[in-house]
Amino acid sequence: MKALRFSETEGLRVEDVEIPKPSPFEVLIKISRCGICSTDSQIIGGYVPGFDHTLGHEFVGVITESPSDPSFINSRVVGEINCKCSGCDHPDPIFRRNHAPKRTVLGIIAKDGCMAEYCTLPLENLHLVPDDITDDEACFAEPLAAACRVAEQGMIRPNENIAVIGDGKLGLLVAHVIATYQNKNSTTTSSSLSPSSSPASVTCFGRHQNKLDLLEPVGVTGIVVTDTTAADYAGKFDIVIEASGSPQGILLALALTPPLGTIIQKSTCSAVVKDPKTVLTWSAVANDVVVNEKTVVGSRCGPFPPALEMLRKAETKQLVKAMLSAALPLEDGVKALEEAQKKGVVKVQLIC
């Protein structure tokens, strides 16, 4: 089969590899489509030292082999990316889902990803895709679930001023989720999200007016970032969600957050420095956090059921359709990764 792979020694290339064999508790999935994520670009930039695998963790596909339960064969599925270790018996289900100590992570840590004709995942990681969600829409399930994690963490309260930094793939989805759905309760183990009767006020900061305009249907205010943005909006937001994908994003998040405010950090960045201007000193972050008693919270993978439910709704379908910039065949995977990094491009998918 063909697969889009990357290593530090051989670089990015499409090559022929063996079709993977599922373990007794895994399934073999024929990939229909997969999405290119900013994390894939970060991996190519050195985010995961020693990476030598097939890329990709956003997909929709059809199960072709299911050793433990053949009834799932021919099911159309999307999948959670964390493959937890069998020995993890932590009492918190979200810890088991996101932080099992010996986990592998699809297309990121020690497990070949989905930018291929086939991949394997544990059966328990998979979610059936409703018939009214198309393949190109279903490819957004994983990043939309990551956006839903912000609500699942229970820190978004009604009538607060919320800022989202970043108008890329994740930033748009996070703003959309917060504007339309909020946590039903504050327990960290609940993944049940429901429409809010008193929605928070959401403002998205980015550099592209055309992208910010995509959030208008759900009532998000878009602000184009300028040199004076930090000063103009200093301390005006109760919670700031940083999803820019840039090391500098945390500085704007700190500026917009008042004393005792909260920053939810979604971005991860490569440690390889390409532009010295993007280098941050720890003191630039720590001094503000400590002196002004700000809370910084990490936010990672999220619940798939509410993400799939959202993908059935007209306003979410409208957003992800507008976000899809291009779809290229797997054979053009190298070109697709280059396309995904161009200015103004939002989401690129591979047809496998």
Describe the structure.
The chain is of the alpha/beta class and 352 residues long. It is 26% helix and 27% strand. The protein is built from twelve helices and 21 strands. It has helices at residues 38-44, 93-99, 135-138, 141-152, 169-180, 209-212, 229-232, 249-256, 282-291, 304-310, 314-323, 333-340; strands at 2-7, 11-16, 26-35, 52-54, 58-65, 76-79, 82-83, 104-106, 110-111, 118-122, 126-128, 161-165, 182-183, 193-194, 201-206, 221-224, 239-242, 262-265, 295-298, 324-329, 347-351. The strands form five sheets. Strands 3, 5, 6, 10, 11, 20 and 21 form a seven-stranded mixed β-sheet that branches. A six-stranded parallel β-sheet has the order 16-15-12-17-18-19, sandwiched between helices. Helix 4 crosses helix 5 and helix 4 crosses helix 10. The longest helix has 12 residues, at 141-152. Residues 183-192 have low confidence and may be disordered.
Q: Average the pLDDT over all residues and give the rounded result.
A: 91
Main beta sheet: 7 strands, mixed
Radius of gyration: 20 Å
Overall geometry: globular
Report strand %: 25-35%
Low-pLDDT stretches are 183-192
* Count of DSSP strands: 21
The end-to-end span amounts to 10 Å
- Structural class comes to alpha/beta
How many DSSP helices? 12
Key traits:
single chain, 352 residues, alpha/beta, seven-stranded mixed sheet, six-stranded parallel sheet, 26% helix
